[in-house]
Design goal:
Layout (H helix, E strand, L loop, with lengths): L1 H14 L1 H21 L3 H4 L17 H17 L1 H14 L7 H13 L8 H8 L14 H14 L15 H9 L7 H11 L7 H13 L7 H10 L3 H11 L3 H14 L5 H11 L3
Length: 286
């Protein structure tokens, strides 16, 4: 959670608030996806009531993105100046050592909750830390740039405007991510073909854009049109965030699972052992 929160803060400081908000919106989309994929309510909590037997089995964006949302919530309640001073104190007092969730919550209680009574209750903290649902008063970012992406995508898919009117040739990677995340599985083969022909998505050199594109092609039942390029992509990219969505999408159908197993049989030995275990669980339907 601290990792993501500070990344957003650094992005905002270097590139501006609009860019930081884009990253936050995309992060929340990842969080909601993983909340839906979680096997149990315990996996949706920020702090599990008991450790997982194998942490790799429950690895997801939930502790990262939900943790960042929790810190954003605290910042919004206490104000950035006060919250930054709190963070500075936490980092200084725990530098060069490990720290547990219990230690952080105790420090939070002493330095913020009790020091600023009436701002946040223990019940609100518990809702963030120990309950499976996202609290109703979570603070979400919004992005004008990503709202324009939504409008452009919907106008093209509905036939209201040509694909060239989307302006996607000038989009950032973040805008492309958002474009794909909101893309319906009901899109036609002709629309996907036009999208690929216009923006050269098959074989795209950007690993993030390529990952989203191949997953979309699989979801839309058009895997055969991208299979050679997708297989080549999976042979040289090993980051779980990028390859597991493709394998998971393939594994949703019997035919796709056969293809996924064939690809994994060929490429699996080249993946990191943790990635191998995760992909094998996906292919086994676990």
């Amino acid at each position: 959670g601290f990792t993501e929160y500070l990344t957003y803060r650094l992005t905002e400081a270097q590139f501006g608030k609009a860019r930081g908000d884009m990253e936050r919106v995309i992060g929340v989309a990842d969080l909601k996806t993983d909340m839906g994929l979680a096997k149990s309510d315990e996996d949706r909590k920020l702090k599990r009531a008991f450790p997982s037997k194998d942490p790799d089995e429950v690895f997801s964006s939930i502790p990262y993105q939900r943790g960042a949302l929790f810190l954003v919530y605290l910042e919004s309640k206490f104000g950035r100046e006060t919250f930054d001073a709190f963070l500075r104190g936490w980092f200084d007092s725990h530098a060069f050592q490990s720290a547990t969730s219990e230690q952080f919550l105790a420090y939070l209680d002493e330095q913020l909750i009790k020091a600023k009574p009436g701002v946040v209750t223990q019940a609100q903290i518990d809702a963030w830390v120990s309950q499976p649902q996202l609290p109703a008063d979570a603070v979400y970012a919004s992005s004008d740039a990503l709202a324009k992406v939504d409008a452009a995508r919907d106008a093209w898919l509905s036939g209201q405007s040509p694909i060239t009117a989307m302006g996607a040739g000038n989009w950032s990677v973040q805008e492309w991510e958002h474009f794909f995340e909101g893309f319906p599985k009901t899109a036609s083969a002709a629309q996907l073909k036009e999208l690929d022909a216009t923006f050269k998505l098959t074989g795209n050199g950007n690993a993030i854009i390529a990952s989203h594109w191949y997953k979309l092609a699989v979801d839309a039942g058009q895997v055969d049109s991208v299979l050679p390029a997708m297989t080549e992509y999976l042979s040289r990219v090993g980051r779980m965030k990028l390859i597991s969505p493709i394998y998971r999408a393939l594994a949703t159908t019997d035919a796709g699972r056969v293809q996924a197993n064939a690809i994994y049989k060929k490429l699996g030995p080249g993946y990191h052992p943790i990635a191998q275990q995760a992909l094998e669980r996906i292919l086994a339907g676990k």
